[in-house]
Amino acid sequence: MAKNTSLFKVEGTLDNVTFYKSADGHFVRTKGGVSKSRILNDPAFVRTRENGAEFGRSAGAGKMLRMASGTMVFKAKDAKLSSRLVQVMSKIKNLDTVSVRGERNAAEGLLTAEGQQVLRGFDFNNRAPLLSVLFAPFSVDNSTGAFVIADFTPKEQLNYPPGATHFSMRSSFVVLDFASGVRDVTYSTPVNLPITMATATVTLTPSGIPQGNGTQIHFLLIEFFQEVNGAQYSLKDGAYNVLNILDVV
């Protein structure tokens, strides 16, 4: 794979050369390699087929997680979120000690403490990791989903972007069955506060306990706003917003 540095940024295929654009720029690659039919049928490529099947399951698990985050993901994500989720789910899949090679999956991996730890703390927006934005101790009640920050002083304990005057926090409580894709989600009411030296306790409690079987996941969304003439405006298309997986059970 080569990078296209010419003045003309084209996309498409010419003879055996493909020009394409990604988040990292414009690239050029040539066609070639083994045919799809041979990969699908030749016994020599059994390991390749197994790897491909497991990759597909990891990609599917990442998509399930994005969907389970609901509309919050549209407020705090980065350009490489999908690929980063595939990497995380692949690590979790490797912790599946039950399934045979080619059938390992994230659903089994998440039944282990190690698999849950891999997902715990994942940031959907790598430009704004939770630990670089929120500098206050907090607690999460796994039975109710309640999120609490006691004695919180926003101006001292938030790394807020220039121009921000307010912030909001919202949490969600998800039960997601990675084997079937079935999920149930409940949300807290958003808490919106000015960025001042005023100290208060912030409590986010989801509207109920989600039903079903699967992995329990707790999300936290932090958004920043600028108030102008009594109206609040989101800053820079969510570049500074946080969406984090607080806990996985």
UniProtKB/TrEMBL annotation:
Top-level division of the source organism's lineage: Bacteria
Name assigned to this protein: Uncharacterized protein
Organism classification: Bacteria, Pseudomonadati, Bacteroidota, Flavobacteriia, Flavobacteriales
